[in-house]
Amino acid sequence: MSRTHTFLTACLVAAGLALPAAASAQGTIKVGVLHSLSGTMAISETTLKDTVLMLIDEQNKKGGLLGRKLEAVVVDPASDWPLFAEKARGLLEKDKVAVVFGCWTSVSRKSVLPVFEKDNGLLFYPVQYEGEESSKNVIYTGAAPNQQAIPAVDYLMKEVGVKRWALEGTDYVYPRTTNKILEAYLRAKGVASEDISINYTPFGYADWQTRVAAIKRFGSAGKKTAVVSTINGDANVPFYKELGNAKISAEDIPVVAFSVGEEELSGLDTKPLVGHLAAWNYFMSINTPANKAFINQWHAYIKNPKRTTNDPMEAHYIGFSLWVKAVQKAGSTDVDKVLAALPGLEVPNLTGGTAKLLPNHHITKPVYIGEVKADGQFDIVWKTAGTVPGDAWSDFLPGSKDIEADWVTLKCGNYNTKTKVCSGQNYK
Amino acid sequence: MRLLDGLRCCGHRSGRGARQIGLRWFQSLLLAATLFAPDALAQSRNDGFLAALGELREASFPDKEKIVERLSESGHPSARPVLTALLEDRLYVRPQDQKIFLVKSGDDSLASFELVDPLSLRDAGSSPRDALTKVGTNNSLRKLLKLTVARFDLSSPASAVRLAAVEEMLRSLDDASIALLRKRVGVETDAGVKEEIETGLALAALDSSDPQARLDGIATLAHNLRQQVRNRLAGLLEQSADGGFVERDERVRRAAATAVRAIDRSRTFYSGIETLFFGLSVGSVLVLVAIGLAVTFGVMGVINMAHGELMMLGAYTTYVVQLAMPRHIGASILVAVPAAFLVAGLAGVVLERTIIRFLYGRPLETLLATFGVSLVLQQLVRSIFSANNRSVETPAWMSGTLQLNDALSITYNRLYIVIFTLIVFAILLIVLKRTRLGLDIRAVTQNRAMAQAMGIRTEWVDAMTFGLGSGIAGVAGVALSQFTNVGPNLGQSYIIDSFMVVVFGGVGNLWGTLVGGMSMGVVNQLLEPYAGAVLAKIFVLVALILFIQRWPRGLFPQTGRAAESQ
Amino acid sequence: MRVARRLWSTLADDPGGAVFLALLLAVATVMPALNQVVPVSSALHLSTYSLTLIGKYLCYAMLALAVDLIWGYGGILSLGHAAFFALGGYAMGMYLMRQIGRRGVYGNPILPDFMVFLNWQKLPWFWLGFNHFWFALAMMALVPALLAYVFGWLAFRSRVTGVYLSIMTQALSYALMLAFFRNDMGFGGNNGFTDFKDILGFDLHQDGTRVVLLVITAAALATSYLACRAIVGSRAGRVIRAIRDAESRTRFLGYRVESYKLWVFVFSAVLAGIAGALYVPQVGIINPSEFAPINSIEVVIWVAVGGRGTLVGAAAGAVLVNYAKTFFTGALPEVWLYALGSLFVLVTLFLPRGLMGLVSRPRRPLRPGDALPATWTDRSRVGVSAGSKTK
Predict the structure, then answer these.
(1) B462 lies in some domain
(2) Do C285 and A85 make contact, defined as CB atoms within 8 angstroms?
(3) Exposed e or buried b for every residue in B148-175, given b needs 16+ CB within 10 A?
């Protein structure tokens, strides 16, 4: 019977531990970090966690914010989408953080969205994504399709003279939406449908022989062909390896990727990739004082001079600066006050310009096209003249071209300008 | 009109075409004139060359392309080395005196570069890397450079170089290339190169106004399997917007149609062989990852969920070996294979001695325990190496393609993996059938008590068997590192497939694993072009499930008293 | 009355079960009170976050019960039970998606957002009917049941047992995962279903709804426990245990082994499906990674940690392991895999009867050569004869 007793006590203790922990240390402002530290996305997201910690450190050295120190609350949703929602709820309800920097995949963002909207939290989302969303509680510091995909296609069409397009993507919403937009855009520019080939492969797809052979065939029809790759994550490595083995060089069929940056290249043998392209709003090789300072700061913080910086890191840098500025302007960390103070704020980016927060919760970003070099860095071959404002609702999709997001005057993320109705997230 | 079309197809912009031709004729005329005043003209030639080089410093990419054309037409003896250097990123500017130099090796890890003077091609000292700025290239510039260098290479003494040059020229056939080919065809001695040149000339002949010339061209090209040739011939059969054919002559059209049909038949045949090869290569990967499992699972009855992680250890061993010998990547794989075998084998033996040993007879417990071990191993690798993927280079002898003919090319890395799998399989078979260890293993498998009674040290045999299976997993990891990501999650992607292959082939049977794995790979690849990758995989899985219903013990079931089951 | 007496006698023999049910009752009454009644500022207030967490644990406990029923008592190790869980979850998800109606991003009253996005013009046939709750309710149970029936009929009829069966169930769940990841399948692809608004008219984000869901889950868990206990205690239960211990012998004694296995498998699948259906509204998302084979293995580990062949142990194991997971990913995010992995190894080596073994057996760990208790001799291994083990 005493054994059962022990067991019972153990259960009760466990139940008791489920009760909320003690209140937070008085005086600090809590900043939540919601990035996967294990699982498939750990590769990309651990760097972002470290970036936020570095930025918090830096801000604390400057005296903190509103006279209080910043405290990071780091959780690990382990690349598990339901766990993202749970951890987000924990951050907002249990830890009572003032702001969260987090998420990478669209699934993770979509799964935490209802939590942030219900608990009125604030999320800064740093990754390029597919658009078709604008939430009151999210600030999108990553690129919308018109800040990455469209300029890349323009470059290929005009500067490289591409006539045939192979759109290769991983089978999920970001490539699907991007390819939908690109297909509409290409058709609008007069490209025939037999000159566009769209294909999707699952996550982590490693057996690229058949697919690469098909691309080679598609590209040998006599017209200049390019591959627009929205292949994400692990599948990129075997894809590029296979391209190299099949002797498809960048001069024959260039591949422009939207999800391959310095971080991904550091895990790759870059010899077969030389000359292939990527489109981002930031490259580590861009030579500005701000960028040099950031890179030095990063190397000192992470204690490894070989680590690379990439676009999502710059997005967090911009997002953090925006948040700090908004909090100082509003004089408080209360989410509603900060949200009111944010639109219109302008902070410097790392490429020599500024990023401005627009009423649709997107920012203005310059677009760069880079060619891969053998050392894993990028040679900038083209850039937009100025910055491109982020458009949440693509002008090329029939379902979204009439939709506008405006959290300042219209107070709606999903406003149809034709029917004058606000649907979806409906805040007045 | 045709000429401009040809130019447009080959990457030049249409507006420049006519201007280019004019410029080129003018240049050639000038060149002829200089033959009558060698010395003075040689000096002015050098100056012109240097001036053009100087312009490369600040030019935009389109302007660089024009300069490259000028340099290649200049006839200067340094033109080829300079253009090759530019193509290989070995052309640098020294900002302090604005002079352009070639460097001997552009390796970024060198602190200082050895300089070569562009005019005289003699050594010009050295300079620290930071004091030099590279003259940059982009894709279209590199494409043009490859073509111009190829034109130079046409007169190289080595036939392999000439062949490569002709192939490069065939990719973008323009007038200058055709003229050079025509000049060369008479003096070419090597048969292979001559054939390629004739192909190029035949392609050019398709544009001629004389129908007989076109017919002759088609006759030459009729058995050529090149995609480009097929495109051109099919292009002759096209209909223009008003319904009439592009190719007016009826005979030519018929000849073209016959040729296209013949080419298509051949290409379909070779494409079938290619699919078969793809299937074999996918299958051989499956066999490689499953064979270690076949030993531990089939022979010892141990469900090892950490099998994938042992493969990951092998892959990381390859990475570490490459870190240790960065200048000998070619030999690194050969070193990595035994190293990975030892590392993974050792890990397996440790695993067996500390955990599995206590769990014999309880396969479900071994499943759970090894699952825990797999989590720990994954996290260990993440802590030591970071969560990022690591880059493993493919050695030069394993990269590239084996071009059997114009329609069939096989990538070397896959070919080597197929061969490697067969070798590993053979070795394993020999070990099991012909060595003392193998005999002991088989004895313990069939009747443990009896084997113990005969004096076999069963515990030692268990440890060795597990070590053997794990070592093979490590070796499989080396192969995997060549074409997929090396990261902490490497094992997870292959564990399910390994189990499927072993169960399909028949637990405890190595031949079953081989046949099972290969057939699964071939079926998967056969389906893929029609159903897409995911559906093909699903189909294979469902077929497997149904297959097991009918033949529950797999393809080659164990027989006899050893196959005790419920 | 007779049922009540049966119930009482069952519980009297089963102190563990009685404790378990009492605990569930406490959870179902005390937790909601702590959330609704106790003011937010008090230290005893239970946040909605914790409430949802407990609800999730209870769903997992139900899933563990389902697995323990077929494994601990039936000897059928299914490494794909998360598939049934996910199927039930998807059925509930489909109902919830239909409930969103016009409030979706694209404002389409019939088609969920992801279908509008894929340019589909109308609902595929398998979505029809899911706007009615009773239909969805039926599907939550029927779809897993159907799949289990077909798979089980094929498998048991061909006498596929032991490791083969386990691998086949893995293949099944893996194939389903690949299928559901495809956007073309009509189940939302990688994004799955999310952003639910309400269930039966009640707003899912309101605390009140969450409390009710928790109570329902606790009730479902209690009912499943009683049902499982009833099955196990009945004559059929004894046959099932006989099948686990000596299948051929049972067959020769005249029992239709295949039928018994099939029906217990189907029942277990239904339990898993209902657990999944209750899981989805509380967690707020269902996604194809629920089908992942790793999830099914985790379920088996919960049962092993808790104690196989004792229903209470399975439920306790599920709650404890998941609590540990939540704790570690919060407190030590970078080392939780170490902790979890070692947990599995240590429990397997030193607690072969799980935690319930601590409660009812002497604490000496098993050594090679020990006589294994008769209730859990594992005869499902192929290829090695029973050398150092007794029968």
Answers:
(1) yes
(2) yes
(3) bbbbbbbeeeeeebbbbbbbbbbbbbbe
Shared domain for B510 and B559, answered yes or no, is yes
Written as six digits, the tokens of C177 are 């995962």
**Residue B256 placed within a domain:** no
As a residue count, chain C comes to 391
CA–CA separation, C65 and C274 (whole Å): 12
A327 within 8 A of A352, measured Cβ to Cβ:
no
Task: Answer whether residue B147 is part of any domain.
Answer: no
Query: Is the Cβ of B234 closer than 8 Å to some Cβ of chain A?
Result: no
Residues B307 and B449 in one domain: yes
pLDDT, tens only, B371-393: 889 989 988 998 888 777 777 88
Q: What is the mean pLDDT of residues B134-140?
A: 81
Domain total of chain B: 3
Distance between CA atoms of residues C189 and C114, nearest Å: 9
Residues C284, A85: contact at Cβ < 8 Å?
A: yes
| Chain B residue at shortest CA distance from C155 | B549
**Cα distance from C339 to chain A (closest Cα, Å)?**
14
Question: Residues with Cβ < 8 Å from B282, sequence gap 6 or more?
Answer: A207, A209, B521, B522, B524, B525
User: Looking at the domain assignment, is residue C321 inside a domain?
Assistant: yes
DSSP state at residue A88: H
C76 and C155 in contact (C-beta within 8 Å)?
Answer: no
Say which of C182, C342, C349 has its CB closest to residue B358.
Answer: C349
Chain C (32-61) residues lying within 8 Å, Cβ to Cβ, of chain B: none
Among the partner residues C175, C340, C379, nearest to B375 by beta-carbon distance: C340
CB burial class (10 A; 0-12, 13-18, 19+) of residue C134? exposed
- Pairs of CB atoms within 8 A across A/B: 131
> Residue A378 in 3-state DSSP?
strand
| Domain CATH number, residue B379 | 1.10.3470
Residue type at B318 in one-letter notation: T
A vs C: CB pairs below 8 A: 157
Residues of A in contact with B89 (CB under 8 A): 374
Q: How far is A155 from chain B (nearest CA, A)?
A: 13
Domain count, chain C: 1
* Neighbours, chain B (3 or more CB pairs < 8 A): A, C
Judgement on whether residues B105 and B61 belong to the same structural domain of the protein: yes
ipTM over 0.85: no
Cα separations in angstroms, A207 against A130, A234, A330: 26, 12, 53
A154 touching C (Cβ < 8 Å): no
Give the nearest partner residue to A275 out of B142, B171, B485, using CB atoms: B142
B140, B167, B190 - which closes a domain: B140
Q: Pick B389's closest partner by Cβ from A161, A237, A245.
A: A237
Per-residue model confidence as pLDDT tens for chain C (391 residues): 777 776 676 666 777 888 888 888 888 888 888 888 877 777 777 778 888 889 999 999 999 999 999 999 998 989 899 999 999 999 999 999 988 877 777 777 888 888 887 778 888 888 988 888 999 999 999 999 999 999 999 889 888 877 778 888 988 998 999 899 888 888 888 888 888 888 888 888 888 888 899 999 999 999 999 999 999 989 999 999 999 999 999 999 999 999 999 999 999 999 999 999 999 999 888 989 899 888 898 898 889 888 888 889 999 999 998 988 888 776 776 677 788 788 888 888 887 778 887 776 554 566 676 656 544 444 444 433 333 343 3
| C337–chain A Cβ distance below 8 A for any pair | yes
Domain that holds residue B172: 158-248
- CA–CA separation, C108 and C99 (whole Å): 12
Residue of B307, B364, B545 to mutate, testing the C interface (most C Cβ within 10 Å of its Cβ): B364
Q: Mutate one of B12, B236, B391 to test the A interface: name it (highest A CB count within 10 A).
A: B391
Strand-pairing partners, residue A124, are A101, A139
Q: What chain C residue is nearest to B358 in terms of C-alpha separation? A: C368
